[in-house]
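[step 3/7] fold_predict: job queued, chain A
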Amino acid sequence: MTSSFLWPLLAVSLTATGAPLPDAFSPAPCETGIFRQDQTDFVALTQGGKGYSYTFSDGTVGNTQDAGALLACGKDAVLVRGKERWPKVALAESDTRFASNGVMLAGRLMEAPGAGKGTPLVVYAHGSEGSGWIGRARDPYQMVGRGVSVFVYDKRGTGLSEGEYTQNFPRLADDLVAASREARRLAQGRYGRFGLMGVSQGGWIAPLAQARAKADFLGIGYGLAVDIAEQDAAQVAKELRDRGYGDDVLAKARTVTDITARLVKSGYKDGLDDLSGAQQRFGKEPWFALVKGGYTGVFLAMPVEELRKHGIPQFDKLGVDWSQDPVQVLSQVKVPQLWALAEDDRQAPPAVTVERLAALRSQGQPISIYLFPQADHGMRSYDQAADGTRKPTTITPGYYDLMADWAKGRVEGPYGRASRK
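[step 4/7] structure written:
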């Protein structure tokens, strides 16, 4: 799909106002890439669910098919705000396929212009999304636009990669190690510092891969130093607190999440009768139907006998390794780590993570922690309605600058309104 159909509307508007079109701008189908105004400001275009998504270097986001879109696509350029022609940056891109445990994965090396022995190179560990990242993820382009070379790949079972989608962290860490080898091979002689970036679920995976990938540093965005069950419990608590419920209801909810944690970790063998009791005890209370979490809401909505007979197939096929202890993993990481966390994150509440990272740092781990206020998961700023629902707006200012500077080894701040913990 392209955004070229937007051009007639834009052209009519320009004609009506008498504003001339910029010289040498010709409407054309959209293409992924980076389009730069000057040494500071640029915009990245990526494939979206509809049209193309754009992300400006200041965090402004949108889609070419939105009403009032801020840009239109042209030949080797974009037209920004109806008046400025931003030319496309010539990136060095190398597509490849590489093997990991018998599965062929698709990857792409994107090198910053003029990449050489002083240019940092990073490989991304994705979140839990089921879509591929090549040509679609905004973060890699934001790094390249800031002078960092990036290797991005489609996770197994997504995009152009083979295999089955999984949330088995050790298996995904193996894939990240294989991607790191391929990135180093393709960029040989044209990079200096090498690191892993992990966002969301990738915050669990990158530390597992660090030593084998021979990464010089880790950069984690809105990740967690708690396990999956702890995340679910924290998510449920935040959901209810944000709805105005107090400690009495949160205590009841914690009883429920303790039960569901036992269920997932035992393969549905431990806790079914207790779950049935909780459903009968709390099922008619208003808060009960509001519970979602990572998985608890699914359990609460299912008859226990159905769970006893069939489990939850959509969870079971993910291959989750419930034995993973992120603090134990992080304690083995000796290279510098940056953790950029969203203070108002409903999906990955950061409070316990900050405490645990600070404790590891007190034991000698080289860990830097930045907390961004008024930011939700994905480092999205938001507008919140009276009923507590949120509408994502921009990428919170300073986040991408922080991640790029960390890759370059020169964090100097300030970064938006982030506080260093």
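[step 5/7] annotate
DSSP finds 13 helices and 18 strands in the chain.
The two ends are 44 Å apart (CA to CA).
exit 0
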